[in-house]
Automatic annotation (TrEMBL), chain A:
Protein name (database record): pyruvate dehydrogenase (acetyl-transferring)
Endpoints of the signal sequence: none
Cofactor(s) in the UniProt record: thiamine diphosphate
Cellular component GO terms, alphabetical: chloroplast
Broad class of the protein's primary localization: plastid
A Pfam family recorded for this sequence: Transket_pyr
Subcellular location: Plastid, Chloroplast
Lineage per the UniProt record: Eukaryota, Viridiplantae, Streptophyta, Embryophyta, Tracheophyta
Catalytic activity: N(6)-[(R)-lipoyl]-L-lysyl-[protein] + pyruvate + H(+) = N(6)-[(R)-S(8)-acetyldihydrolipoyl]-L-lysyl-[protein] + CO2
TrEMBL record, chain B:
CDD domains: TPP_E1_PDC_ADC_BCADC
EC number: 1.2.4.4
Species, as recorded: Rosa chinensis
Cellular location(s): Mitochondrion matrix
Single biological process term from Gene Ontology: branched-chain amino acid catabolic process
A molecular function GO annotation: branched-chain 2-oxo acid dehydrogenase activity
Signal peptide: none
Cofactor requirements of the protein: thiamine diphosphate
Protein name, per record: 3-methyl-2-oxobutanoate dehydrogenase (2-methylpropanoyl-transferring)
Similarity-based family: Belongs to the BCKDHA family.
Residues annotated as domain Dehydrogenase E1 component: 137-433
Record GO cellular component, one term: mitochondrial matrix
């Protein structure tokens, strides 16, 4: 895992030889990979940063409008796709690049995955590399861990994140621990991914927010994607990481459309994304709530506020560098999350910010979360348990008084 | 009453059963209730009872086989259900499969109780070098168990778990494998490591969790693991290694390696969900994995009669479509042969195999247990003395002229000396440094761990008297 925080200039080298990387033999994979383009989204000027892409700062989270800085080429660069296609693209590129990458999960093979993320891959790579498993989450997660310890890089798909609660034993006791308890002899480069969060009337069992339960497990990393761009980048980074990574997707974000670059890129697993720079208040969010925040931001801008919106992306560990710089600038923090009030990501983030940046705060941190209730089915009730833009606007107004 | 029986079989609701099984024809339905047992097969009676209810009769003897010609013609066209997994024949006989077979599945053995080879047994040959190495490794294992158990009682190590009574399973199964075969142990298989060349010093280092431990002092004693011996680190979670084994086999399958995976589990571990799913997966993915279940009769204080009601573990193999065998776990030659054959099948046919090794856990579950509290002492004595696998094997090698009394004394003394020395050395070696608390959680230290380590060091510096002096900072 890279330590990419500003002060240490041990940034990953950018090399143009990313395509020429030869595939190492299965049992002698190097611990570190250099030579791929790491795109950093930075809040402040950092002379050691990698090359900055034009148009990187997205002022509108739902990027269907034209990019702010489109080059003068006759046709627009990049290609447009939906988020689940971006995930698939990332997955496919990594499978082509490294023969040890494989996928396992329920209905991922010929069915193409419940959300079509693995569509077409079984035809291309065979049903050994894209493996349909019986319905036993703890066991196929365990199988992935065993395969990882032997040199493969499995991507374990949970049909819904909530089902991975059945795999908690394997994820906590084995996935997170075996690298440590074996004295570093066996590594577990798995990616565990799946859709979670509140959907449209999926009922309580299919609306779980597992990031809060998993956050405490030592040895794993957690990231949450929110746009096609970062979905593909995070997928690739997670696959390349030698640590176990849990990639949280959201059921309602799979059909987001965005234009992403044609050339290869990887996002950093430990970095937050600056969505909209501002001066008055720092709004920290991730996954679907990013869109509610951006909607609220429009209203706030009309009312004369200048919110800084950061998509934290990395849920474990938090990117306290980016967050800290923002807090030092605005002195006010609002956290908007979908997790429950108690024990959620917001609770943990509040503690981390208070501990580290207390002196910079002009007001107590406000955290908007879902209530501590199972998500009801009825549409009106469900809507009320999720933080809505109006609440965000009110909270900012109160915070900025 | 007969009039009530329609020609269709669907009028079951009107029929009273006094036994589970009964059969009747469509033309002349006859109820023959009698106190038959489940496994008895009732046939259609030759003598048909007509429409008179008075001819309804009780009978307690079996009838001759009935003729199916009495059934109507349209049954022939629908004799079979054609499903993708295979044809299923229909039957007009309602017969429940019994919960147990008439006899328990028999147990394969090559040596009798006195270590004499049984005539006409098919087995894999074991030459003198292999046999002597097997025996001396058993001696090392026994000696190690005695001395380390004592060390725990003396307070020198915190915990230990013996393999007494299961030495043959450990050593013989390891001897039938190659070093390329990957082993995923449960926790009572250090013999496999002994066979593969793990030294007593390495065992001692792990138990004393010193700097030289491959696990860097992070696990309890007996949680051995060694990459170079292809022996995955023991995890405390029961049966979690079984799905791992399937994953490893899947990996070998992708590699097309001439190797298989061997994983061990106890009778208690077969109750875990992971056991069932792993067997199921292994069958579905056609993975080259050998599941060896050490059925030693006890899961701490739970006897197998409280663990499952099936005929042991071997019958569960068929439920998942896995070839299985029951072996005398205290017979080293039988274990060797079974594992040898299983390995051939697993690799050449790319299929899983289940081996149930019947044995007995002579020792306590661990140093935290006193098994005399829940089982009779004479039961333990019986298995310890009369059915000891090591003695049985020794008699066989002595009979072959490959072993002698002197060799025995020499082997025992040498093992004892080495182990005592290893313990003394291990006790002296430094403990792992504080830095090792934080390394290997991830591939390299993230900022939160860097910060936490810094804080810890500051605290230790400020209050050195509150921290152990023998832990290097």
């Amino acid at each position: 895992m890279a330590t990419v925080f500003g002060a240490t200039s041990a940034a990953i080298s950018v090399s143009s030889n990313s395509r020429k990387l030869h595939l190492p033999s299965r049992r002698s994979l190097p611990g570190r990979r250099a030579g791929f383009l790491v795109v950093r989204s930075d809040a402040g000027a950092n002379p050691n940063a990698g090359p900055r892409r034009a148009g990187q700062l997205i002022t509108n989270a739902v990027a269907t409008k034209a990019d702010a800085a489109a080059p003068s080429a006759p046709s627009k660069p990049g290609h447009e796709l939906l988020l689940f296609e971006a995930l698939r693209e990332g997955l496919e590129e990594e499978m082509a690049r490294d023969p040890t990458v494989c996928v396992m999960g329920e209905d991922v093979g010929h069915y193409g995955g419940s959300y079509k993320v693995t569509k077409g891959l079984a035809d291309k790579y065979g049903d050994l590399r894209v493996l349909d498993t019986p319905i036993a989450e703890n066991s196929f997660t365990g199988m992935g861990i065993g395969a990882a310890m032997t040199g493969l890089r499995p991507i374990i798909e949970g049909m819904n994140m909530g089902f991975l609660l059945l795999a908690f034993n394997q994820i906590s006791n084995n996935c997170g621990m075996l690298h440590y308890t074996s004295g570093g002899q066996f590594k577990i480069p798995v990616v565990i991914r799946g859709p979670g969060g509140v959907g449209r009337q999926l009922g309580a069992e299919h609306s779980q927010r597992l990031e809060s339960y998993f956050q405490s497990i030592p040895g794993i990393q957690m990231v949450a994607c929110s746009t096609p761009y970062n979905a593909k980048g995070l997928m690739k980074a997670a696959i390349r990481s030698d640590n176990p990574v849990i990639l949280f997707e959201h059921v309602l974000l799979y059909n987001l459309k965005e234009r992403i670059p044609d050339e290869e890129y990887v996002c950093s697993l430990e970095e937050a994304e600056m969505v909209r720079p501002g001066e008055h208040v720092t709004i920290l969010t991730y996954s679907r709530m990013r869109y509610h925040v951006m909607q609220a931001a429009k209203t706030l801008v009309n009312k004369g506020y200048d919110p800084e919106v950061i998509d934290i992306r990395s849920l474990k560990p938090f990117d306290l560098h980016t967050i800290g710089n923002s807090v030092k600038k605005t002195h006010r923090v609002l956290i908007v999350e979908e997790c429950m009030r108690t024990g959620g990501i917001g609770a943990s983030l509040t503690a981390a910010i208070t501990e580290n940046f207390h002196d910079y705060l002009d007001a107590p941190i406000v955290c908007l979360s879902s209530q501590d209730v199972p998500t009801p089915y009825a549409a009106t009730l469900e809507e009320v348990t999720v933080v809505q833009p109006a609440q965000i606007v009110t909270a900012v107004e109160e915070l900025c008084q | 009453m007969i009039n009530r029986f329609k020609s269709k079989m669907g009028s079951l609701g009107l029929i009273h059963f006094s036994s589970w099984s009964s059969s009747f024809t469509r033309k002349s339905p006859v109820l023959v209730p009698f106190p038959a047992s489940l496994t008895q097969n009732l046939r259609i009676p030759e003598r048909k009872f007509g429409n008179s209810p008075a001819h309804f009769r009780f009978c307690s003897r079996r009838f001759e086989s009935g003729k199916v010609e009495t059934l109507s013609d349209d049954v022939d066209a629908n004799q079979v259900l054609d499903l993708p997994e295979g044809k299923v024949k229909f039957t007009p006989e309602m017969r429940f499969i019994s919960e147990t077979a008439k006899e328990r599945e028999s147990c394969y053995r090559v040596l009798d109780d006195n270590g004499k080879q049984i005539m006409c047994s098919n087995y894999a040959e074991v030459g003198p070098e292999v046999a002597v190495k097997m025996y001396t490794d058993m001696v090392v294992l026994q000696t190690m168990d005695i001395i380390f158990y004592e060390a725990q009682r003396q307070g020198r190590i915190s915990f230990y778990l013996t393999t007494v009574g299961e030495e043959a399973i450990n050593i013989a199964s390891a001897a039938a494998l190659t070093l390329d075969d990957i082993v995923l142990p449960q926790y009572r298989e250090p013999g496999v490591l002994i066979w593969r060349g793990f030294t007593v010093q390495e065992f001692a280092n792990q138990c004393f969790s010193n700097k030289a431990d491959y696990g860097k002092g992070r696990q309890m004693p007996i949680h051995y693991g060694s990459n170079k011996h292809n022996y995955f680190t023991v995890a405390s979670t029961v049966a979690s290694q079984l799905p791992h084994a399937v994953g490893v086999a899947y990996s070998l399958k992708m590699d097309r390696k001439d190797a298989c995976v061997v994983t061990y589990v106890g009778d208690g571990g077969t109750s875990e969900g992971d056991f069932h799913a792993a067997l199921n997966f292994a069958a579905v993915t056609e993975a080259p994995v050998i599941f060896i279940c050490r059925n030693n009769g006890w899961a701490i204080s739970t006897p197998t009669s409280d663990q499952f009601r099936s005929d042991g573990v071997v019958v569960k193999g068929r439920a998942y479509g896995i070839r299985s065998i029951r072996v005398d776990g205290n017979d080293a030659l039988a274990m060797y042969s079974a594992v040898y054959a299983a390995r051939e099948m697993a690799i050449s046919e790319q299929r899983p195999i289940l081996i149930e090794a019947l044995t007995y856990r002579v020792g306590h579950h661990s140093t935290s247990d006193d098994s005399t509290k829940y089982r009779p002492v004479d039961e333990i004595e019986l298995w310890k003395v009369e059915r000891d696998p090591v003695t049985r094997f020794r008699k066989w090698i002595e009979r072959n002229g490959w072993w002698s009394g002197e060799a025995e004394i020499e082997a025992r003394n040498s093992a004892r000396k080495q182990i005592l020395h290893a313990i003394q050395e291990a006790e002296k070696v430094e403990k792992p440094p504080v830095a090792d608390i934080f390394t290997d959680v991830y591939d390299c230290l993230p900022s939160n761990l860097v910060e936490q380590e810094k804080r810890l060091r500051e605290t230790i510096k400020r209050h050195p008297q509150d921290y152990p002096s023998d832990v290097p900072v």
